[in-house]
């Protein structure tokens, strides 16, 4: 399992107390991981309502499977894997996984005023990511932000490593087009 750059430490005694059924300890774990799980789900699903559902499903699974946690890997890595699986399962259920990218002019982000530069860049990137098909957005996020390999992504998405590679390549080209970034590397 790859290690996220967003690793979150959790005291072993807190996990141990939650494993014994201590409600207060589980609530502390929930509060500690609520935002990171929601953010991860939002990046994969691209929808706040779906991300909220993934958060709830992930925490329910955590509650039921916490006794199975052996402590041989970082807790956040273990929980993150549950969240990724739940988000991808939700996408599969919705039959939203699309392998091909189609470029539509209507998908281009619209100019909406002049917020501060960093906020404008973040908002523009968010709109561009939302314009991508769910599969492409998921692969890009898992690969670039979460650090998964193409083989790991292929396994998670029940596809081939070449699917992951092509989604990263196509998705990057699509993001460049949506963000009006010229490719300075000429092959």
Fold and architecture overview:
Keywords: Sigma factor, Transcription, Transcription regulation. It holds the Pfam family Sigma70_r2. Belongs to the sigma-70 factor family. ECF subfamily. This is Sigma-70 family RNA polymerase sigma factor. Residues 29-96 form the RNA polymerase sigma-70 region domain. With 187 residues, the chain is an all-alpha fold. The protein folds into 2 domains: 1-96, RNA polymerase sigma factor, region 2, helix turn helix motif (Rna Polymerase Sigma Factor, Chain: A); 97-187, Winged helix-like DNA-binding domain superfamily/Winged helix DNA-binding domain (Arc Repressor Mutant, subunit A). 65% of the residues lie in helices and 0% in strands. It is built from 8 helices and no strands. It has helices spanning 12-19, 23-45, 48-65, 75-93, 117-131, 134-145, 150-157, 161-178. α6 packs across α8 (161-178). The longest helix has 23 residues, at 23-45. The radius of gyration is 18 Å and the shape is elongated. Mean pLDDT is 78; it is low at 1-5 and 96-116.
What descriptive keywords fit this protein?
187 residues, mainly alpha, Rna Polymerase Sigma Factor, Chain: A, Arc Repressor Mutant, subunit A, 2 domains, 8 helices, 0% strand
Would you kindly provide a brief summary of this structure?
The chain is mainly alpha-helical and 187 residues long.
Give the helices and strands, then pairings.
Blueprint: H1 12-19, H2 23-45, H3 48-65, H4 75-93, H5 117-131, H6 134-145, H7 150-157, H8 161-178
Family: Belongs to the sigma-70 factor family. ECF subfamily.
Organism: Pseudoxanthomonas mexicana
Domain RNA polymerase sigma factor 70 region 4 type: 124-175
């Amino acid at each position: 399992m790859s290690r996220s750059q967003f690793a979150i430490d959790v005291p072993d005694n807190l996990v141990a107390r939650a494993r014994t059924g201590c409600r207060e300890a589980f609530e502390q774990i929930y509060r500690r991981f609520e935002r990171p799980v929601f953010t991860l789900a939002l990046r994969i699903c691209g929808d706040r309502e779906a991300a909220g559902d993934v958060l709830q499903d992930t925490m329910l699974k955590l509650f039921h499977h916490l006794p199975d946690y052996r402590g041989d890997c970082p807790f956040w890595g273990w929980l993150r894997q549950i969240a990724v699986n739940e988000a991808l399962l939700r996408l599969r259920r919705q039959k939203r996984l699309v392998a091909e990218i189609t470029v539509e002019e209507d998908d281009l982000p619209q100019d909406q005023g002049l917020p501060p530069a960093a906020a404008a860049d973040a908002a523009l990137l968010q709109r561009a990511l939302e314009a991508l098909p769910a599969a492409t957005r998921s692969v890009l996020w898992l690969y670039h932000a979460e650090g998964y390999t193409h083989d790991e992504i292929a396994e998670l998405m029940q596809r081939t490593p070449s699917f992951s590679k092509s989604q990263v390549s196509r998705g990057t080209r699509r993001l460049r087009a949506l963000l009006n970034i010229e490719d300075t590397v000429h092959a």
